Amino acid sequence: MHIPIPFNKPYFSGDEARYIEQAVRSGKISGDGMFTERVHRFFEQERGFQKVLLTTSCTDALEMAALLLAIEPGDEVIIPSFTFVSAANAFVLRGAHIVFADSTALNPNLDTSTLENLVTPRTRAIVPVHYAGIACEMTTILAVADRHSLAVVEDAAHAIDSYYRGQPLGTLGTLGAFSFHETKNIISGEGGMLAINETRLGARAEIIREKGTTRSAFYRGEVDKYGWVDIGSSFLPSDIIAAYLWAQIEHLADIQGQRRAIWQRYYAALQPLLSQGIGLPVLPDYATNNGHLFYLICRSLAERTALIAHLKGRGIWAVFHYQPLHSSAYYAAQHDGRSLPWATHYANCLVRLPLFYELIEPDQRRITDAVLDFFHMY
Ligand SMILES: *Cc1c(COP(=O)(O)O)cnc(C)c1O
């Protein structure tokens, strides 16, 4: 019997414990210490982000976005149905009504061809999700947002170090939200980041992140006392979290190279499946690949269920995800009744294969052989 292959194994550079100890010895392990500063500087000075703030999760970054945009009860927000619950929940917490968009036939990203039909006088924001780190078609999204004065919040949870026509994902919209959860490319266990791409929102973002106070400006010496000036919450992570993250950012190029190599090997080995009508990821020419995840699209739910069981029988852990939010237990009754066939299709038929830094070639061959064998192509 083979040793089981897990679905995910968190990356570990080996420097994490040393940096955490440095953070502890620095005497400042609450938020915005030396490692948080380093992470902020990396994105702002080396990656072309205008302003970033580390948060305790991507979920929190999205909740900050909803506060920052002053979303109110009755406002409408357009979100793809095929995505993680946090994108919708952050706005539902502010009383917004979610208008769900379908995915494209090409890949699970938001279908921009019908986007404008979803806009009403109450629409305030569009939340594209760059699924698998592959960019949404941002030109149309930004044009629709511009025509109707809507904010764009990019859910870039999958999309670290990925680009749309050369621009980093997360910097194209009004705001961008990243995740450093242990299932993502670079991690801190739990963790996230908000990218603030409009200067006018920067000062208020700091206040919302610091419990509605001017503490950030106070620490910089810009005000002589700090006080309560707005609503907010506690969104900044301990510097211990930032220290862990910094130990990963230092290895970002290596991590991305390795993940992309694994992705490419899957893509090459599984080409024969295309002739059977099994779908593989599609990368439009405006998008880059950051090797975040690799998926297959089966032809039916029954086929996917059988494939996952077949792989499990060989000690390989493959998973599916995203129950469509428009038909979820919590929101189905509030959805307007439109069917979203592509969201439902991906929810039923998409399967993710193991993809992590330490996945060695012989194990990956075991996975591709098992998949091809299932489809009688081996
Ligand atoms: C992981 C993920 C989130 C949530 O990230 P957390 O950091 O766990 O809060 C949000 N959206 C998408 C698309 C994700 O994959």
Automatic annotation (TrEMBL):
<dbReference type="InterPro" id="IPR015422">
    <property type="entry name" value="PyrdxlP-dep_Trfase_small"/>
</dbReference>
<dbReference type="InterPro" id="IPR000653">
    <property type="entry name" value="DegT/StrS_aminotransferase"/>
</dbReference>
<dbReference type="InterPro" id="IPR015421">
    <property type="entry name" value="PyrdxlP-dep_Trfase_major"/>
</dbReference>
<keyword id="KW-0663">Pyridoxal phosphate</keyword>
<dbReference type="InterPro" id="IPR015424">
    <property type="entry name" value="PyrdxlP-dep_Trfase"/>
</dbReference>
<dbReference type="Pfam" id="PF01041">
    <property type="entry name" value="DegT_DnrJ_EryC1"/>
</dbReference>
<comment type="similarity">
    <text>Belongs to the DegT/DnrJ/EryC1 family.</text>
</comment>
<dbReference type="InterPro" id="IPR012749">
    <property type="entry name" value="WecE-like"/>
</dbReference>
<protein>
    <submittedName>
        <fullName>dTDP-4-amino-4,6-dideoxy-D-glucose transaminase</fullName>
    </submittedName>
</protein>
